[in-house]
Amino acid sequence: MDEEYDVIVLGTGLKECILSGLLSVDGLKVLHMDRNDYYGGESASLNLIQLWKRFRGADTPPASLGSSRDYNVDMIPKFMMANGVLVRVLIHTDVTKYLSFKAVDGGFVYNKQKVHKVPATDMEALKSPLMGIFEKRRARKFFIYVQDYNESDPKTHEGLDLTRVTTKELIAKYGLDDNTIDFIGHALALHRDDRYLNEPAIDTVKRMKLYAESLARFQGGSPYIYPLYGLGELPQAFARLSAVYGGTYMLNKPECKVEFDDGGKVIGVTSEGETAKCKKVVCDPSYLPGKVRKVGKVARAIAIMSHPIPNTIDSHSVQVILPQKQLGRKSDMYLFCCSYSHNVAPKGKFIAFVSTEAETDNPQVELKPGIDLLGPVDEIFFENYDRYEPVNEPSLDNCFISASYDATTHFESTVTDVLNMYTMITGKNLDLSVDLSAASAAEE
């Protein structure tokens, strides 16, 4: 391996594959290695036999569940905002030509021990059973303010500087009660905890606008889309993109030891006695354990069912958010369900996930409120994994390490991490001002 690469990417998780695609398009010479013999790393999709092997060891799945290859079970299940940053990245890179998407049926929120459709517009707010009649009027006024708000038009600001006013102060102006604030903050603005209330309101308003714009994009029951055959398609699509632009891929490479010079700067990666030279390394936390710290733990249950999640209008694909306050917790819980309608299970089968940030030493018990919403399950699996984030200084060692995937079931935090890494590596921002109306990013 005498060649020198601009960047060596280690691991084929979704974040690493997106970066390798973007950097290849930019003309950088990229070598992409993985110790596994499959794409996707932590974010792989498994068939039924792989799922059984991972969670049940030697057992074989029961025949009643159908054919193994009809299953594509995501290990990091997440939906995409139809108007969100990941979709813009897909369109910007033209990766959409390798993928087919379908809208997700519904977005729901857990409130007072019941599951409700998330109202996202002033009209939906008026119909929602989440609020009483007077509260509906107040909420409608707030939604209209958010819909009309335009950052560059002070006339729409009603005298408020949202970069200074906190979300709590903005909401107080409309007199909304705690239950309403709960679903706005967690199910519409997709905040993971209540810290946002004391932060500038501009972020929450932008997040609410993204939700409404995404909802309007396909006139579906939710703002989310999801690839047919599951998320495992995404890393492979970006790997194809990288290859088209000259990126080199090597799977099944054991060890992948990052080498440094005397000054602590990366100089290459060694595998099987050969060293590939490079200027920069991009990797997930497992490749450089000495440069990351543990920041939390995700608890997750994966269920195979023969019915949709009850009280979700028979939705074949759905997200339910359980805000922390409703459960007496510090962080939200997420319920994700997909089915044969997205080609991730055989006909009549549904795959549901319940995930949250673990807060105790007994994560299985913590997941109970979400699992209780599923109804009868055919099979259920539990897993926990530690979350890591980098503690190194990339400008000193040229190592760019992604953070572990969080418990959320949407992609907004994941893409932010990727774009920040892209900017650190290239010194520029990715221009994502694409015309979404002209791009057919999804199939109706």
UniProtKB/TrEMBL annotation:
One of its GO terms (biological process) is small GTPase-mediated signal transduction. Signal peptide: none annotated. Gene3D superfamilies: FAD/NAD(P)-binding domain, Guanine Nucleotide Dissociation Inhibitor, domain 1, Guanine Nucleotide Dissociation Inhibitor, domain 2. One of its GO terms (cellular component) is cytoplasm. One of its GO terms (molecular function) is Rab GDP-dissociation inhibitor activity. It comes from the Eukaryota. Belongs to the Rab GDI family. This is Guanosine nucleotide diphosphate dissociation inhibitor. The lineage of its organism: Eukaryota, Viridiplantae, Streptophyta, Embryophyta, Tracheophyta.
